[in-house]
Amino acid sequence: MSGMTYKGYHARIEFDADDEIFVGRVAGLNDVVGFHAETVDDLKTAFRDAVDDYLETCRTIGKAPQKPYSGRVMFRISPEVHAKAATAAELSGKSLNEWAEAALAEAAAKLVA
């Protein structure tokens, strides 16, 4: 198991062989929201409870919960990769932004449902 999704939030799951438990963390948040369990069923429940607790805590303290993502990405790549990506986009009849979105979506779909 590599991840779970609940209310738009995703979790990264690992197995701690020393303690023989599953350990998870909600991805994409500045706050650390973690959970753990001994069984898969308990892990699913712990994840949902962690997300619900995060949302309730935010509501209680008057803080807007961090949304999973805005849709705006900015990152640096080498000039060689940039040139190849721009050429690939042009050859496919897409803008670089459209091409990059499709490439990222395809890569992410392999890891996240």
Write up this protein.
With 113 residues, this protein is of the alpha+beta class. Helices cover 43% and strands 19% of the residues. It has helices spanning 40-61, 79-91, 96-109, and strands at 3-6, 9-16, 21-26, 34-37.
In a few lines, what is going on in this structure?
The chain has 113 residues and is an alpha+beta fold. Helices cover 43% and strands 19% of the residues.
Q: What does the largest sheet look like? A: 4 strands, antiparallel
Structure class? alpha+beta
Instruction: Report the span from N to C terminus.
Output: 12 Å
Q: What is the mean pLDDT? A: 91
Low-pLDDT runs: none
Query: What's the number of helices?
Result: 3
Shape: elongated
Helix content: 40-55%
Going across the major beta sheet, what is the strand order? 1-2-3-4
Radius of gyration: 18 Å
The tally of domains stands at: 2
N to C succession of SSEs: EEEEHHH
Number of strands: 4
β-sheet strand percentage: 15-25%
Q: In terms of topology, how is this protein built?
A:
Elements: E1 3-6, E2 9-16, E3 21-26, E4 34-37, H1 40-61, H2 79-91, H3 96-109
Antiparallel strand pairs: 1-2, 2-3, 3-4
Helix pairs in contact: 2-3
Key descriptive features of the protein:
single chain; 113 residues; alpha+beta; 2 domains; 4-stranded antiparallel sheet; 3 helices
